[in-house]
Design a protein that fits this description.
With 314 residues, the chain is α/β, with parallel strands linked by helices. The chain has a single domain, classed as 3-Layer(aba) Sandwich (Rossmann fold), CATH 3.40.50.1110. It is 50% helix and 8% strand. The strands form 2 sheets. Strands 2-1-3-6-7 form a 5-stranded parallel beta sheet, with helices on both faces. The chain is globular.
Length: 314
Amino acid sequence: MITAEMLEKAKEAGRQQAGAVIAFRNEELKKRTKAIAEAPKAKRLARPAQPRKAVLRTLGPPSPHLLIAEGDSWFNYPLHDILRILEDHYGYDVDSVAHWGDKVEDMAYAEGQLEKFTRLVEKALRRGSIPKAILLSGGGNDVAGDEFGMLLNHAASSIAGLNDSIIRGVVDERAKIAYVTIISKITSVCLERIGQAVPILIHGYDFPVPDGRGFLGGWWLLPGPWLEPGFRTKGFTELSKRIDIAKQLMIRFNEMLNDIASIPDFSHVHYINLRNTLSTGRDYEEDWANELHPTEEGFEKVTARFAEVLETLP
């Protein structure tokens, strides 16, 4: 069980990471300033190349709102994802350090993630922009894939289904602490660089359909399947039963995220509930391209939920 002391330690770990990155970036920015100052005068005064007017008309006007994102494949998916749709269909500019396959623990503890994020904040400030919101997506890769079967008790067992002890450890403890750490360090960077906390949007996933479909049939960048092998190994053959178990897992994951958004000093954190946005009925393939990722139409539906929340922010 997560205690208040454990949450405080996670927040402090995030603040310490942010402090180390800010100190590192301050030294790097001194080098950048010196390099610009020491550049030949003619180079410093040279006017940058101007794009053709016809190209500018095609690109359209600049967006009044900037978003910065960190996350997994729901933010970094071939051809269509939430960030692309927010840019192209809703008119936001989005800077991102998201990468498919990233686990929430990678985002919380891996070296380099926060430094990349901080650089994006700095670039935005140099352009005269303050992010409207920070978008954060993660957790799917922490519970799906090769280790998914470990979350299940065998279908023939008297305790068939999700193993509550393991779910509690993976979702309610490990993933929650990682999220608190990420939010704490992102908030600390914004306070240091911008002078105020920036709204942070977190989201759960909708209820998947573990039918064994992977990315493009199961090859290339994101092969999959990610759920069906674990279900098959543990003796769950009926799709309806798999859907029900996956639904229970997503409910637990969403409840964990909603609980994070209710932490008193996380009042700038907004949880987006995506459950029941996509179909798990007979027409589910219209919304789900594979076990973990929506179709283009599905991503449109999910992104609309993001846009609704973003429109409520100042």
